[in-house]
Amino acid sequence: MMQAVRNYCGVVVILVWGLAPFYWMVVTALRDKDHTFDTTPWPTHVTLENFGDALATDKGNDFLGAIGNSLLVGAVTTFLAVLVGVFTAYAIARLDFRAKGIVTGIVLAASMFPGIALVTPLFQLFGDLGWIGTYRALIIPNISFALPLTIYTLVSFFRQLPWELEEAARVDGATRGQAFRLVLLPLAAPALFTTAILAFIATWNEFMLAKQLSSNATEPVTVAIARFSGPSAFEYPYAAIMAAGTLVTIPLVIMVLVFQRRIVAGLTAGGVKA
Fold first, then answer.
1. Average per-residue pLDDT in the chain?
2. Domains, in order of start, for the chain
């Protein structure tokens, strides 16, 4: 009994710790801008005007366009990261080749570079190539950040899949490619789904590189929110920013809640028991 109480208390603490900032953002977004700094812990002076301000374009903001940019960059980055990552992970987990340890070390090293250290060289490189303000300048760096996560998640999954499944397919006449496509990929679906969602969320939330490499036409939502302007230079639109943050966060929360079973399966299922 006491163990169950402690478990529930732990869950409550984690929920409060994780969701309190989001809850306060929603409360502020629903509150009249004249009462933005009201400390009442529940919505007061409720209005939807802040959401209208977040979506308005009369002050130079283009929030809906920024959402479209984020969706495009996130979708392309996720697709390419998963596409490259699944083949790389299979090769590392299943094949023996020279310099296998070097390849694994390069993948690990790529995940250790702090993003801030890449801003200047990427800005210089993409500036020379004329890519500043293009989608390529946003997608390519995000792929490099998403690939290590994708590869290592899938490597651990492929390594725990029974070799007998692939060998049985080969004995039945399937090529290595057919065995991979028809046997291993369906079994790896939970892991693929999990890495795709995590890669998309990481790309959706990226700010630092996007701030330097995007233009007004290609900026994602994180940059657009940071660039929000109020009625005057002396009035910062806190309420509109909270409304924009709510609009950006709620779809991610819904997506995680809808697909939580697949996410948990991808993170916890190590393979299929023979």
1. 84
2. 1-47 (no CATH), 59-268 (1.10.3720.10)
